[in-house]
Amino acid sequence: MAVPTETVYGLAADATNAEAISRIYKAKNRPADNPLICHFHSIEHILEWGITPNDTALKLLQSFTPGPLSMLLNLPSDSSLKNATCQREQIIVRIPSNNIFAALILGSEKPLAAPSANTSGRFSGTNAMMVQEDLGEMIDAIIDGGSSEHGLESTIIDCTEEGTVKILRPGPIGSDQIREVLGPEVKVTKVKTGNIIPGSKYRHYAPTTPLFWFNAEIPFDKSRNPVLILTMQDEKRWKGAAHYDVQVPVVMMGDENHPEAISHNLYQCLYHADSYQRPLAYISHYHASHNIGIGIALEERLTKAVEGKSN
After folding, report:
1. What CA–CA distance (Å, rounded) separates 134 from 289?
2. For site-directed labelling of 104, which of 46, 197, 210, 217 has its Cα 20 to 30 A away?
3. Which CATH architecture has domain 211-305?
4. Looking at residue 194, what is its pLDDT?
């Protein structure tokens, strides 16, 4: 079943049920060595399943959850949740804030594994229509909860070592926010992990349409019938360029000074660009100017989705 969350839509199943977990992997065509995030309704619920956060992890859970933070923690070796972890003795936990999803977890009385509701490698669905067009024939139901609040996947951090936080996947919560909670004595780093976590090993976040960086100063071959995915600023530069052509379709991402709005729109913009069924698309660069999580996450998602460097 596809369910709404505050980040993106998820494909949810009982995290203790091996058959249900297998159906997630089949529906998404997900690599079998890519573990799933498990969702709980509260910190107490996490503790009930024998998962014991250290002091650093507990402080972050208390500060940022329910919300878009996922956390790698140690898992008891005999846990039935290993169905969702590819048999690893570490688990990624999250406590979502979306009321619909939270109620489902509470009603099930079990953790729910819920990776993003999309075919592996593609951008995540952030509304019910996107999920229906991508996975509709592969899943039983979709709960329509409107458009996802953040529009990007959660931050994933490794909190298995006391006093150290490793950011494994950028998301809405960034290193500056984490440092504000933990203080300067705790080490917060962004790592290129050898661990397999969602979005790390395999190509992710890509549209069907081949995607390349846009540069308003460089003319491109209009005979290739591209579609442009632009910030407000790049649209203005494009309209002022000598090679501007009103017939080239433009999908608007938003104001680059407001990364929260662009992040909310990003996957829907890629979905819209795909609907043109053009041979290729050009998209605006976004460079995060500081360590606020959503900006770093936006830059990372775009970099992974883009195939080429310029026009």
Report:
1. 34
2. 197
3. 3-Layer(aba) Sandwich (3.40)
4. 54
Q: Which pLDDT does position 190 carry in this prediction?
A: 86
Q: Where does the chain hold its CATH 3.40.50.11030 domain(s)?
A: 211-305
Give the neighbor-by-neighbor strand order of the sheet with 227-231: 211-213, 281-283, 227-231, 250-254
> For residues 56 and 73, what is the distance between their CA atoms, to the nearest angstrom?
11
Which residues, including other chains, have CB under 8 Å from residue 128's CB and lie 6 or more apart? 2, 4, 9, 142, 143, 144, 145
- Per the DSSP assignment, residues forming a β-bridge with 252 are 230
Strand order in the sheet with 155-158: 13-14, 112-113, 37-39, 90-94, 69-74, 155-158, 164-169, 187-190
Residue-level pLDDT at 193: 60
Closest to 2 (Cα-Cα) out of 24, 22, 17, 18: 24
Please report where in the chains the tokens 């979306």 appear, as a residue: 98
- Residue pair 190/288 in contact (Cβ under 8 Å)? The answer is no
The CATH homologous superfamily to which domain 2-190 belongs is DHBP synthase (3.90.870.10)
- Burial pattern 15-31, b for ≥16 Cβ within 10 A else e, equals bbeeebbebbbebbebe
Q: Which residues contact 161 (CB under 8 A, 6 or more apart)?
A: 54
pLDDT at 185: 85
Q: φ and ψ at 283, to 5 degrees? A: -130, 145
0.90 exceeded by pTM: yes
Average confidence (pLDDT) per 10 residues, the chain, 311 residues: 98 97 96 94 98 97 98 96 95 98 97 97 96 96 97 96 95 94 90 61 78 94 95 96 95 95 97 97 88 87 79 55
Orientation angle between helical segments 293-305 and 259-275, nearest 10 degrees: 20
